[in-house]
Amino acid sequence: MKMSDIFENKLKFKPDYKWPDPEKERECPRFHHLLELADDRPTFFGKPWWCYRCQWQFAEEDFPGMKCESQKK
Questions:
Q1: What is the pairing mode between strands 36-37 and 56-58?
Q2: 53 or 3: which carries more pLDDT confidence?
Q3: Beta strands in the chain (DSSP E)
Q4: Which domain holds residue 44?
């Protein structure tokens, strides 16, 4: 790997996702089962919610008026 391919700081597409309370539950907009809530750790760079069936991540700001990209499959 070339030195120009290595970044000093890790890249994060959107670093400030709003993390929900651990007791909160959300339903998958496609399969209508409960989503998994990821741990809010500094080494995790994804969105808080995960659907194991459609393999999609969601953030709190995705839910109002949800139009799930995974529903297009």
A1: unpaired
A2: 53
A3: 36-37, 49-51, 56-58
A4: 19-61
Q: Is the model's pLDDT at 49 over the cut of 90?
A: yes
Average pLDDT over residues 53-57: 91
Please answer whether residues 26 and 64 qualify as being in contact, where contact means their C-beta atoms are separated by less than 8 angstroms. Answer: no
Number of domains forming the structure of the chain:
1
* Residue 31 covered by a domain: yes
Q: Degrees (nearest 5) of the Cα angle 19, 9, 2?
A: 135
Map tokens 């529903």 to a residue.
Answer: 71
Domain presence at residue 7:
no
- Between CA 60 and CA 71 the distance in angstroms is 18
